[in-house]
Amino acid sequence: MTILVTGGAGFIGSNFVLDWLDVSDEPIINLDLLTYAGNRQNLAALEGDSRHVFVRGDIGDTELVARLLEEHRPRAVVNFAAESHVDRSILGPEEFIQTNIVGTFRLLEAVRGYWNDLPEGDREDFRFLHVSTDEVYGTLSPDEPAFTEQHRYEPNSPYSASKAASDHLVRSYLHTYGLPVLTTNCSNNYGPYHFPEKLIPLVIHNALAGKALPIYGDGQQVRDWLYVKDHCSAIRRVLQDGRTGETYNVGGWNEKPNLEVVETLCAILDERQPREDGRSYAEQITFVKDRPGHDRRYAIDASKIERELGWCPEETFETGIRKTVDWYLDNQVWVENVTSGAYRDWVEAQYA
Ligand code: NAD
Ligand code: DAU
Fold this sequence. Notes:
Rossmann fold
């Protein structure tokens, strides 16, 4: 038994690979293109571990994927690979179309070919699990109920539109070809190995570097935060017992306005690593131009996965955010390594 994971050197993918091999001995073939967001250092703990086979490559390379499937004969594919940063999708949508739409399509084609040729029992047991986002549902007003799986798709950024397109393609492979697919739509993750272009790691990094903590617009946009390891456990549950063809929303019931998240981070840092001048990191908060088309509020109704699969998150925001700050304080070398020259150019372009 083996599974093929794509994008397993990124933030969520690497947490998933590490957690999977922590709780099971089933090997993983990890296919990742190692874009700026992919980092083999995340997987350093698996160096020399024969249960983990890393392959650098593109999900859009049908020939490569077909060869890997043929060679390793996985019982499931879990697709994390994507361009994932909304701001980058606004500055340059092309790669989002390429990987998230064309890449997913080509991956599906390779998987369909492999699955078609499997013996009867293996065909039934096979699963293609597509990891998606709550952003496909668009934005909520303050009083609207949280997104259920029935909520209509209303993506507002090139990123979320490309993820929505990939969800539709996955769905079509079930209805047209019978490929046994599962889709998860998750809210905002945070935790170890989160690339410091996203709000939480960016704020921790900038705070310690004495830089501005940029808040888009009025900072009252709401996100629903989930500790990454809880997302990984949800994916394991869905892969094991999810009903074929179903979609599962995954979230932490942790709605927070951005400004509150940043103030919480500042307060924890004030406690854990006080500024030399004795003042609060909150003094570094700076309001900047808003993100174009900025979604005002996301909230996930996670009752289906709870009811059907008995999954619920282990961390509250309060426990998860403290673990996260501690991880970053203990792993400053990792942060230094990922904040390379290319990263600094991007930050300059984004916040100019
Ligand atoms: P990430 O940007 O940290 O990692 C993406 C990984 O995919 C990287 O390792 C990158 O090298 C790899 N990759 C990119 N293009 C590729 C290609 N063409 N072929 C192979 N590998 C490629 O992203 P993440 O935050 O870990 O998100 C993983 C998945 O989860 C994405 O599909 C994202 O849409 C989804 N998701 C993310 C969040 C979140 O809060 N981060 C929430 C819900 C869903
Ligand atoms: O909801 C799930 C999504 O969460 C995932 O699908 C995406 O891959 C992931 O990147 C994340 O998207 P967001 O746009 O919500 O995450 P980000 O960390 O970029 O921003 C979180 C909020 O903070 C958002 O409202 C924008 C705001 N923000 C972000 C940055 C980087 C700021 O105010 N300042 C910043 O500098």
